[in-house]
Design a protein that fits this description.
single chain, 173 residues, alpha+beta, 6-stranded antiparallel beta sheet, 4 helices
């Protein structure tokens, strides 16, 4: 199955997002990235794929890379079509890679959604849990993009290990 070509609005938005990511990466090098993203701890962000409608990033939590198998994960940025001629930016990261049916975990995440400014927990078609934020493409500014990106990074930092503990019935330390 071939991927349809990007619309003009998607192409413009894609270039804008790549520029935003370059500016954020440059700020990271200058040690201001955590302030721009409003993240609780420093992260290493690597672009792994920039072709097409989905941009893939590999995120490493600098504080925990050596200690946790969950310290490195993928974040995806999809440039979608909205209202036929406009673009929308979806940022997301999966917190599980298998279907979650535990009602206690799902209710916990639903209650946590109230805390977030730019997104919330959702479930994909396969029942996997992800954290997602969405922004309008044409009007998006770097500060909005950085806040939404930081929100996804912070949500994964805060809840990835907690969700896996709950799914495996491991008590918190």
């Amino acid at each position: 199955m071939t991927t349809p070509p990007l619309t003009t609005a998607q192409q413009v938005c894609h270039a804008q997002v790549i520029d935003f990511l370059a500016q954020i990466h440059h700020a990271h090098i200058d040690h201001q990235g955590s302030e721009i993203l409003k993240t609780k701890q420093p992260h290493q962000i690597n672009l792994t794929d920039t072709a097409g409608a989905i941009i893939n990033l590999e995120i490493s939590s600098a504080a925990e890379v050596e200690t946790s198998p969950l310290a490195k994960w993928q974040l995806h940025i999809e440039i979608g079509i909205w209202l036929e001629h406009k673009a929308i930016i979806h940022l997301w990261s999966w917190l599980t890679d298998t279907e979650v049916r535990e009602e206690q975990v799902l209710l916990y995440l639903l209650r946590k959604n109230e805390k977030f400014q730019f997104g919330g927990f959702s479930m994909d078609d396969n029942g996997c849990i992800r954290f997602q934020a969405s922004l309008l493409g044409e009007t998006c500014q770097i500060n909005e993009f950085a806040l939404a990106l930081g929100e996804v990074i912070n949500a994964v930092d805060l809840y990835l290990l907690e969700i896996h503990r709950q799914l495996q019935h491991i008590p918190a330390i």
